[in-house]
Protein 1
Amino acid sequence: MSDLLKLGVLISGNGSNLQSIIDHIENDSLKATIKVVISNDPDAFGIQRAKKHGLKVVVLNQKNFKSKEDFDLEIIKTLQENSVELVILAGFMRVLSSVLIKAFPYKIINIHPALLPSFPGLHGQKQAFDYGVKFSGCTVHFVDEGVDTGLIIIQGVVPVYDEDTEESLAKRILKEEHKIYPQAIQLFADDKLKIQGRKVRIKSAKKKTINPIHNPPLGGF
Ligand code: GRF
């Protein structure tokens, strides 16, 4: 039990990615343990999800802190007190200050609902939908001091159909988020991520060919 990777999950809202991580841990497909869930919103639904599964929840409301740095220092303290080894941002609606990023170098990851580096920042799904892309998806990446600029670990791709709405696209993307986030955490837990410049290689991954896909599909070309 003690050699399981210790996670701290930061949330602000619905917490469906938190739920997916919990479910993968409970069905034993993710070998990790959640030591603490931190929410910056006392009303986040994710808090209820965490409590239902007996997880420790700490609510840190930024309104009660003098500055962003003070708030982040409290987050660091909470993570360290709970021996967290990997910090998971799961819909945490704040940009982290450098003090927090430096406290956990290459040990903070985030999921973004678009294929980075396209459509960073808020509402990645809507940005992609409005732009008219034929594919979108989601990206798990290490967090650096920029907004969604960190090294990319894994991406999931979904098609965008003519009849899609912003909502139907967001739903399709979220479904993939729930698969790639636990997968990325497991790769980290297995020490399989090797950083080379901007590239995150997967150590000892067998080369698998992925066929190119086209949307709309090629008709006889
Ligand atoms: C997800 O779309 C994630 O990509 C983004 O925030 C949303 C969080 O959703 N960073 P949930 O709270 O995990 O349901």
Protein 2
Amino acid sequence: MRLNGPMQLTADYRVAAVRPRDGGLVAVPTETVYGLAARADDAHAVARIYAAKGRPADHPLIVHVAQALALDEWADFVPEYARRLASEFWPGPMTLVVRRSARAGDFVTGGQDSVAVRVSSHPMMDATLSALISLTGDPAIGIAAPSANRFGRVSPTSAKHVLDEFSGIIGDEDLVLDGGESTIGVESTIIDCTDDIPRLLRAGAVTVDDIVRVTGLTPGMTSPVRASGTLDSHYAPTADVVITDASGLGATHATDEARIGVLALASVPTPIGMVRLSAPETNDDYARVLYAALREADALQLTTVLAVLPDDSGLGAAVIDRLRRAAHS
Ligand code: TXA
Ligand code: MG
């Protein structure tokens, strides 16, 4: 596998754009997390992604497109509130689930009658899509990209995470575009737009308050639609994640054998004998460092991570959601 610096670009995007056709995998950064990419019209390339991830075939993928106009090509019906969301938050960390058009194959949607669509703001995803558009002449062409991690594990927020995640699974013919660290750090907000009102399927940087402000509608919080990131147990490192509060943490004592990591906002002190994994200053920082900290816990062979949740403002809601799932056994 090659690691490309962000300086040697154009040629690599063209390579990245054609690569899924000749069998290799491509990991592409987005502002949320890194994705494992394949042309969304190529059943074989998509099948390889499922195999590399170990992902069950009925878990649908997100289709990344270059611009909001492509939404109508993938959707059978787009409600007005979804258009408002798209014009406000795309390109950005938001995915809309819409009723699918004939363009969205069963191999991408997991056989559901809806499809998830996103326009990422990351210049490398954008450049890869641009290369693919000029290659195919199709402005609505999509790149299917799940987070570039093994199924159920922690999502990658750097090129190195992708390499660690797939060492021994993907090889020399595969490609990772190195876009540095993802600036948001947790996956996109997923909003189900198949009905009269929006429903929040996964918390992310676009918050419930944002949805209310832009659509004038209060989103539903549950949906019959399946989302694998909404399985109870997900985003899990090997270490046990245990949720605690600041006073509970203060009362916990590390024994000699236990190797305990601490993840909390900087205002929470580290008890003696424990390993501080990260000390983010804000909820946004917490989201950005979260997955790297969980990976670090495994690299240090810690047995337990004690996590103190932030409040639910801004990206705090997404951090709480991911930590709860990571803690669920
Ligand atoms: O930030 C992100 O969204 C990243 C980057 C790479 O774009 N992608 C990502 O993909 O998180 P993935 O596959 O790890 O998570 C996508 C989620 C899954 O939980 C999947 O079940 C859900 O989106 N999803 C996809 N299509 C859906 C659909 N038609 N209906 C409901 N949920 C869907
Ligand atoms: Mg994922």
Protein 3
Amino acid sequence: MLPCFLVFLPPSPPLLKLTPLFAALRLTILSATTHLRLDPLAQARAWLGAARSIAVLTGAGISAESGIPTFRGPGGLWNNHRPEELATPEAFARNPKLSWEWYDWRRQRVSAAQPNPGHRALAGLEQKAAEFTLITQNVDGLHRAAGSRNIIELHGSLWRIRCLGCGREEENRAVPLRPLPPQCTCGGLMRPAVVWFGEALPVDAIHRAARAASQCDLLLVCGTSAVVYPAAALPDQAIAAGARVIEVNIEPTPFTDYAHLSLRGRCGEILPQLVASTPASESPL
Ligand code: BJW
Ligand code: ZN
């Protein structure tokens, strides 16, 4: 049985985020107007079926069911490893071998993992949608492995490495990667081509993501704590541009109160049900 929790809100500007008073008002409106006409999953399917342009934002939660640890929360990577010791430009400069050992461990773990039903459901959704963009914060490459094609990797990829000397970037799938740290043909030190705190996201990726979020009819926000910017601003941008936004997460997030619909449960369980054929004729509310 699917555990579902519904928050059903009229679209509203993200400005309401600005003050607790507005947030309280919004919740009051919510409790006064939450008369469910469809069950949450049916409502979400109706909106999906009616959407011409669909965007999806994913985070570590969608890969959790493939055995890849999330960053925050129970079992999260940041519980045992401090980002500032491993995953910042300063940490890498201080001790590139230590940082690489951690990335090498993660590469080994991901290389042994398979996409799960959540990844596959999104790949299936891409086949059905007239326009579809998958924006991911994940660096594991599991969306591509599942068959998704129009993917924007906001935080880079575990499978690409970049030279700090000449800037050359290459795909590298060696597992384990040796020697550590790897060296470029120019003699420079290679680093993982991922985005660390304090670093700018790839310009093209964030522009394309912002465009997809502001041009879609519907944005699905799946398995992200929605706390890391600028990715966390994309759902607000979608709402401001008039899109419906549905969140899928096992826990509430700072975005939950602003989502039009919040489905509480695992991506690997909810997404396949959401994407299971929905006739476009199911009229949206
Ligand atoms: C499930 C589930 C299941 C579990 N089903 N759900 C204030 C405003 C704006 C910005 C900032 C600010 N203060 C500081 C900043 C900057 C900073 C930031 O946002 N910090 C916040 C923490 C406050 N941002 C940056 O530094 C970014 N760069 C930047 O801003 O540059 C500015 C600049 C401009 C010009 C020049 C120079 C600079 C860069 C951010 C980079 C993030 N990097 C990481 C590491 C990537 C590499 C690596 O993998 O090692 O990206 S951090 C980490 O967090 C990783 C993730 O992509 C990212 C987001 O995490 P995610 O995916 O949401 O995972 P979790 O673990 O947080 O959440 C999992 C969720 O899944 C939970 O909600 C669970 O409940 C759920 N879940 N199982 C469904 N089965
Ligand atoms: Zn080089």
Protein 4
Amino acid sequence: MNPNRKPILAGNWKMNKTSSEARDLAAKLAPLVSGVKDREIVLAPTFTSLQTVSEVIKGTNMVLAAQNMHWEDKGAFTGEISAEMLLDLGCEYVIIGHSERRQYFGETDDTVNRKAKQALKKGLSAILCVGETLAEREAGKLNEVISRQVTVGLKDIVTEYIKKIVIAYEPVWAIGTGKTATPEQANEVHSLIRQKVKTLYNAEVAQGLRIQYGGSVTPENVSALMAKPDIDGALVGGASLKPDTFATLVNFK
Ligand code: PEP
């Protein structure tokens, strides 16, 4: 953690919870985290639960995120959701390029970039996900993969908009597997991302950028991760689905 960057803890609920279950989770979470002032708390339910969660968290210290969006304004894109639709429901953030979207739904660095640009242009903040597979890491391609994902993902995004970007480093081999990157491994990649952003923009932008770690973060390992200088938050899947667990994680010491 760096005192100049506000920690950001986000819960990615993935394809879990019906609308009424989501309402219940958000409602139970609210009082458990209401005392948290120095951290940003973001909830990313499914599209079908955005409205209901938006109502529950109105006036609390939690903000709403979507898990995906389309890069066009509107039109003949059956099954897709636009930035404007998300804003209308009270979303402040959108997760872009999660590895599950890259892995199962054909998202590429190019589509990630298009979505990020559209999100920012429309006034959403973007959580842009990057991360290497185990095969890429073992083949010594970690730096190459992360550098490419960051460079292409941020292509043509002007300095003014970068303030509304959070990068989530999520090694694919650590997501939902119970295998967390060690704090050292995670910090090393966060530092690499910050260096890359420095070369693409400048030192001030790089120092201001928040970089979350994601991959089997739990109440047990969050403090050690957050103690590292380049780790500014966590993107949390499984451990965000239970109010007590996520609240404990958010309240890490
Ligand atoms: C995620 O959803 O981005 C994630 C990191 O999942 P988990 O915490 O379950 O590994």
